[in-house]
Amino acid sequence: MTKLYDNHGRPINYIRLAVTDRCNLRCFYCMPEEGIKYVAKEALLSFEEMERLIRVLVKMGIEKVRITGGEPFVRRDMINFMERLTQIEGIQKVNLTTNGTVTLQHIDRLKAMGINSVNLSLDCLDKDRFFQITRRDMFDTVMKTFHALLTAGITTKINAVVMDGQNIQDIIPMVELAKNHAVDVRFIEEMPFNGGDAHYTNLKWNYKKILNHIQEKFPSLTKVEDEPSSTSLNYKIDNFKGTIGVIPAYSRTFCGTCNRIRLTPTGLLKTCLYDDGVFNVRDIMRAGASDEQIKATFLSALGSRAKDGFEAESKRSSQLPVSESMATIGG
Ligand code: SAM
Ligand code: SF4
C-alpha cells in the first residue's frame, strides 16, 4: 500500500469530509443563533466530486474517511453516498460524526454498510440544558439514537464539549454513561470555532482540569494505551463497560502524530484544523484538473504542512483570531 507522508515525516492516511455547512441544531459553541449565511448549493462539492477525490486519495495512501459537517444527514441522499464510499477498494474505515437528530432512520443501513464507528455529539444528559446549549428541543430524539446505535451493535463514541459555566455539572453523569454502556465518552476542550466573536485566550477547563475532576469522583481512573494517532487520551474505570477520553483540542498536545487532513464543504483543503485553508480542490477540479494534477497539488500541500496547530494558527492569512464556525470545518 502506498504511504503518504508530510514534510515532518508524519504518515497521512485519514481524511475528514465536512459534507455540508448546514445544521438543524445551533450549539452555541459552534454556531451563532441567527444570521448564518449558508453557502449556495452549487458551491458545495457534489457527491460525484467527493467520490472522485476519494478515489484519487486512496491511491495516494488514504485509508480512512470521516463524514462530518454541519449535520451530515441534513444533506439529501447522504446515506447513499456513504454506501458508495464503503465500497471503494482501499478504504478500510468509514466513520461518521453526527448530532443524532435525524440519524435514527439510517441506523440499519449504517450497520449494513459496515460503518466503523459513530461519534455522537451530546454535551449533557439534562433535557433543559440540552436546549440551552443546542437551542433546539431534541434531547429525546438524540437519546433514542444513542440507544438504537448500541442495540444495533455499532461502535459508538460520545463527544461532549466541556464549557465553563454551562455543563460542568454534567461531566460526572456523562462519565457514568460508560458504567452500564459499552461506549467511549470523550470530553473535548472547547475551541474558539464558534462562528462569532467570543474569543478567549485562557481555557479554564483544559484536559488536565477535566481529568482531575473525574479522578476526584472515580479514583480508579487509569490510563489505557491509546491507538496510534489518537487525538484522545483514554482511561478506564473499575467495573465500567465503556471508557473515558479527553481530547486536548485547544491545548494541542497531539499534533506530533497527526495523520489527518480536512476538506470543507466547499472543497478547501485544511492540513491542520487551525489553518485557514491551503488550496481549493473544487476549483481545480471544476477547471478541468486531471487526477495526476490533483495528486500533485495534494503532495505539494503536504510538503509544507505546519508542524503543529500553533504554527498553523500563526500563519493564517487573515491574522484575525480563529472564529469561523466549526460547522464549516467538521471538527
Ligand atoms: N453536526 C455533527 C455533530 O455535531 O456531531 C458533526 C459536525 S460538528 C462541527 C463535529 C464535532 O465538533 C462535534 O462533536 C462538536 O461537538 C465539535 N465542536 C463543534 N464546535 C466546537 C468547539 N467550538 N469546540 C470544540 N468542539 C466543537
Ligand atoms: Fe450543528 Fe454539530 Fe455544530 Fe452542533 S456542533 S451546531 S450539531 S454542526
Count of DSSP H/I helices? 10
State the domain count: 1
Largest sheet: 12 strands, mixed
Overall morphology: globular
Mean pLDDT: 95
Task: Itemize the secondary structure elements and their pairings.
Layout: E1 14-18, H1 47-60, E2 64-68, H2 78-86, E3 93-98, H3 107-113, E4 117-121, H4 127-134, H5 139-151, E5 156-162, H6 171-180, E6 184-189, H7 207-217, E7 222-223, E8 233-236, E9 243-247, E10 260-263, E11 268-270, E12 279-280, H8 281-286, H9 291-302, H10 309-314
Parallel strand pairs: 1-2, 1-10, 2-3, 3-4, 4-5, 5-6, 6-9
Antiparallel strand pairs: 7-8, 8-9, 10-11, 11-12
The chain binds S-adenosylmethionine and iron/sulfur cluster.
Iron/sulfur cluster binds next to loops.
Protein model, in words:
It is a single chain. By secondary structure, the chain is of the alpha/beta class. The protein has a single domain (14-329), classed as TIM Barrel (Alpha-Beta Barrel), CATH 3.20.20.70. Helices cover 29% and strands 16% of the residues. The protein has ten helices and twelve strands. It has helices at residues 47-60, 78-86, 107-113, 127-134, 139-151, 171-180, 207-217, 281-286, 291-302, 309-314; strands spanning 14-18, 64-68, 93-98, 117-121, 156-162, 184-189, 222-223, 233-236, 243-247, 260-263, 268-270, 279-280. The protein has a twelve-stranded mixed beta sheet. The longest helix has 14 residues, at 47-60. The chain starts with 13 loop residues before the first strand and ends in a 17-residue tail after the last helix. The mean pLDDT is 95. The structure holds S-adenosylmethionine (SAM) and iron/sulfur cluster. Iron/sulfur cluster (SF4) binds at residues 23, 25-27, 30-31, 69-71, 99, 121, 326-327.
